[in-house]
Amino acid sequence: MIFKAVGEGRPYPDHGYVRVGQWADIAPRQVRLDELVTTKRTLDLDALLADDSTFFGDLFAHVVQWRGVLYLEDGLHRAVRSALHQRAVLHARVLVLPD
Questions:
Q1: Residue pair 30/93 in contact by the 8 Å Cβ criterion
Q2: Entry pTM
Q3: What Pfam families does its record include (predicted)?
Q4: Contact of 85 with 53, CB cutoff 8 Å
């Protein structure tokens, strides 16, 4: 199993982070893939296979920690790419929401 679970949608409250610049204030750190719950069930293969998939976005995945669970909000293609390269961790910006 690559991820802790595969979810559909965001079970946590709206956090208001909508622009990459807001996420940029959060320092990236390593997160284990097997601790992540995805918020998307499907992966866009174009995003996975694109050489410039981060050209207009953040270099790091976006993860929301809520009630002790790490939710992969953005960067599913990065996480799958890491798994395909036999890596157990992903560099991500983790936004911690209060319970």
A1: no
A2: 0.88
A3: VapB
A4: no
Taking the domains of the chain in order of start, what are their residue ranges?
5-96
Residue 58, pLDDT above cutoff 80: no
SS3 state of residue 69: strand
* CATH of segment(s) 5-96: 3.90.1530.10
- 3-state class (DSSP) for residue 11: coil
Output the pLDDT for position 20: 82
Q: Which long-range contacts (CB under 8 A, 24 or more apart) does 49-56 make?
A: 53/77, 53/78, 54/78
Closest CA to 64 of 36, 38, 92, 96: 96
Going along the chain, which residue ranges are E strands?
A: 5-6, 28-32, 36-38, 61-66, 69-74, 89-96
The pLDDT value recorded for residue 51 is: 62
